[in-house]
Design brief:
With about 450 residues, the chain is an alpha/beta fold. The protein folds into two domains: about 200 residues, Vaccinia Virus protein VP39 (Rossmann fold, 3-Layer(aba) Sandwich), CATH 3.40.50.150; about 160 residues, Vaccinia Virus protein VP39 (Rossmann fold), CATH 3.40.50.150. The chain has 18 helices and twelve strands. The strands form two sheets. A seven-stranded mixed β-sheet has the order 3-2-1-4-5-7-6, with helices on both faces. Strands 10-9-8-11-12 form a five-stranded parallel β-sheet, with helices on one face.
Length: about 450
């Protein structure tokens, strides 16, 4: 059963978060977002406010236990890592986080993931504690310890409602484990003598700098994010409530405990992307690599044997010993691995960097010492293809029709086949109404 202090603290925290979000939403006044991604949703309090300004909202948090147990109607919650977001490119109009970025270990990787998920013209909104927050943490830490001890003692003196045997047993076992964990722990006692590190910094000096506006401007700049605007958020203490007069005075003189950054993607960042990245970003190309990235974790010996058998059937061979094998746009790398298992010397390439990453992952996992080369390249790049040479088998499954110039792609791969070799391609055929229906479904 939560203490009176815990209940009051939660009410206070929700009021602060409501004031923060109201200030943030004023940045985008009169703007209704179709698709919004909330990162680090915590208990989901701000999610309902965001839902009112969006047509579709996905709220995420790293820890599954942190997600709301009672999901509100119309709200979607997902447990995922901000450094590995499971969304397609250009999926959201706005990405929002509150007090999250300072807890991210690899901030550049996280921002790169967010950039991929953000559509052209979309915005990121991030609220982050500032240097004032850090100073207040130091000034009020010891008064807070005294206050917390007194509040705990007062709560313990109040008459408590009867507790069920089940809850009493759980509480007793939890207390025993906690005492065992901290028994004779001098290091634990010393840790309580100084304020804790809030984020991933090693020292308080490092964290103070990382909370500065200069630091975040540098972080956003190197990730090709432009700060459209920055506003100061409400002032509050890191340790809770009870300082309303001080809070109002601090806000009156312009002090704030956090900053909110409204970010847009710089044009230079899009120009710096690979050809594949620009096409995905503009909506011209589907990001197959993201699908293969998810699929690669499911690859096992059963799937590998099935790939081998498929190759044997399609190529009408039992083995590929001594043969050279070119896989045009390797995708997950599964069939390249099947060719390796059949004895071939394999070269795999793909236009999608994530597909290349998946293929390399399978090589390292199942055939690290095999004669198997994995490269990034395009079937439409004649200069690249000319450097590859000729192969006994050129294999391409479900690829050439996705290039936008299928006949040109076919003309490009045909000369790669050695005399007496085999060219195997699989492309879509026109099934009339069924093809039209599937085209509509895939566009949706």
């Amino acid at each position: 059963m939560p203490s009176t202090y815990d209940q009051r603290y939660l009410i206070w925290l929700h009021r602060i978060r409501a004031r923060e979000l109201e200030a943030i939403l004023r940045l985008v006044d009169n703007t209704f977002f179709k698709r919004v991604l909330e990162l680090g949703c915590g208990d989901g309090f701000q999610s309902a406010m965001l839902k009112a300004r969006s047509q579709f909202l996905v709220s995420t948090d790293y820890r599954i236990e942190a997600l709301p147990t009672e999901l509100s109607p119309g709200l979607k919650f997902l447990a995922c890592d901000v450094e590995d977001l499971p969304f397609m490119s250009s999926s959201f109009d706005m990405i929002f986080s509150s007090n999250l970025l300072e807890h991210v270990e690899d901030i550049d990787k996280a921002l790169a993931e967010m950039r991929l998920c953000l559509r052209p013209g979309g915005v990121m909104v991030h609220a982050i504690p500032n240097v004032t927050w850090k100073i207040v943490q130091f000034l009020l830490y010891y008064p807070f310890l005294v206050f917390w001890k007194v509040s705990s003692w007062v709560d313990s003196r109040k008459p408590q409602a009867p507790e069920s045997k089940e809850n009493a047993t759980i509480r007793f076992e939890s207390n025993v484990k906690r005492r065992q964990r901290h028994k004779n722990s001098f290091k634990y006692s010393l840790r309580k003598l100084v304020p804790p590190i809030h984020g991933f910094s090693k020292t308080h000096f490092e964290e103070t700098y990382k909370f500065s506006n200069h630091h975040w401007n540098q972080v956003f700049k190197r990730n090709s994010l432009a700060t459209a605007t920055r506003i100061k958020m409400p002032f509050y203490s890191p340790y809770g409530f009870g300082l309303n007069r001080v809070r109002r005075l601090c806000e009156l003189v312009g002090l704030s405990s956090s900053n909110c950054y409204l970010l847009t993607m710089e044009q230079s960042g899009t120009e710096a992307m690979s050809a594949h990245g620009r096409q995905v970003h503009s909506g011209e190309r589907f990001e197959f690599g993201m699908n293969w990235k998810r699929f690669s974790s499911t690859v096992n010996d059963v799937r590998i044997v099935a790939a081998q058998q498929s190759l044997q059937q399609m190529l009408e061979v039992d083995r590929l010993d001594g043969k050279t094998f070119l896989y045009v746009s390797s995708g997950s790398g599964l069939f390249s691995l099947g060719a390796v298992r059949l004895g071939a010397r394999v070269l795999s390439f793909d236009f999608d960097p994530q597909s290349v990453e998946c293929t390399r992952y399978l090589k390292e996992r199942f055939a690290p010492s095999a004669d198997w080369t994995v490269e990034e390249g395009s079937v439409l790049d004649k200069d690249y293809l000319a450097r590859l040479g000729k192969f006994d088998v050129v294999y391409s499954w479900g690829v050439l029709h996705h290039t936008g110039t299928m006949w040109q792609a076919l003309e490009n791969v045909a000369p790669l086949v050695r005399d007496g070799g085999k060219l195997f391609i699989a492309i879509y055929n026109d099934q009339g109404g069924a093809s039209r229906r599937w085209k509509t479904i895939k566009q949706l």
